[in-house]
Design brief:
Layout (H helix, E strand, L loop, with lengths): L1 E2 L11 E4 L2 E4 L26 H19 L14 E3 L1 H4 L6 H15 L4 E5 L5 H15 L3 H5 L9 E3 L23 E6 L12 H33 L7 H4 L7 E7 L11 E4 L5 E5 L5 E5 L2 E4 L7 E5 L1 H6 L9 E3 L7 E7 L4 E2 L27 H7 L1 H5 L9
Parallel strand pairs: 4-5
Antiparallel strand pairs: 1-16, 2-3, 5-13, 6-7, 7-8, 8-15, 9-14, 10-13, 10-15, 11-12, 11-14
Helix pairs in contact: 3-6, 4-6
Amino acid sequence: MIIIKNLLPITALCAIVVDGSAGYVQKPISLCSSQEGMAAPEKNATMISEPHKYFPTQIKHIVDAADAISPDAIGLPDDQSYPVIDISPWLNPFMSSDKEREDVVNQVLEEATTVGSFNIIGHGIDDALFDRLYTAARGFFSMSLKRKIRFSSGDNLIGYVANRNESVAAIHKSGSRKEQKDLRETFSMSSPPNNDGNVRGPHEFHNAMAEYIEQLQSVEKAIKQIFTAALSSAKGIDIPATYLKDVEEDATGLLRASRYPSTPGFEDATKLLPHSDLGTITIVASSEEGLEEIRDGRWYKVPMRKGELHVSVGEVYTMWSNGLFKNNIHRVSKEAKRDRISFPYFTSQGKRSSNVIDTDVGISPICSNGEEPRFPRTSTVDHLRKYMGAFTGEKDDLWDD
């Protein structure tokens, strides 16, 4: 069972850490609640009480409108460029100025509140590691199915999962018979890599994924600090700089190597149906075409250049920001490059434990003064649980063995 534990009370989170030093704020975080601390917000006329039903409906409406313009994605016009944000001022705060960090926050705030995605550079991960990662993944996926199955854990969370064994269509419906199963095979590893629940893949593959997870930790920390600062700026309230990282401090990430193989008879099928990720943020590495998203009401191709990472907002950040951050809607196209490989890293997926905690988890939406809550208090794991029936064939919990 994966749980979130050791959550600090909101009133205890009163120190902002910038450049390694702590400064103290004058007022606590403003939750969308009439009560203090971890209390759930009171229900009101605008409250979306069942987010797991709201988001699929929202996504369907947006996708239908985009498809009505054109179901095919296009590149950005010549006079526009895809947002690429250098986050190095937040990875190296002692070597950057307040103005440089503020500029990064403003750029992220613009993208997070409109489309919910952007690419980043200045993340500090060496190209040589990416080369090893792609080479090792291609070596693994090129093995026979019989050999790959040996690295399966028996569920769809950790280790190897064969092509057409998962189904985004379980939640985000498709009228096409060919799109009822995802056209991809995957291998997943949770953070930290030495987690007892992980399946150890072939030596080179395991080591490359483990090293990449370790290097992603500083990237995740910096991005969540940037999102915290963006939320603080937009709401006009003081929030500790590490808040969105600390609120699920014991959470673990999940790195997934995904290969989208050529599948005879399915050439005209979307490889991964339109959806938004369920958690906080997702960090994606891929140097090959195929990822597409909705921008300005229509489908656009996402440029995935070597050395850049793609960041997308998940549904939990939409809820925690009370709708300020937009959950990014994306898909993997039927036009995706043959045998495309990508590495999405899903942050804050929870932590395996023998204990179950069903109460006192998560946070209420963070609001500006006078703002009404639109979502109930939740955590990433709590939100994931709501989808379990569709994803796991009515199993009680996604994380059950």
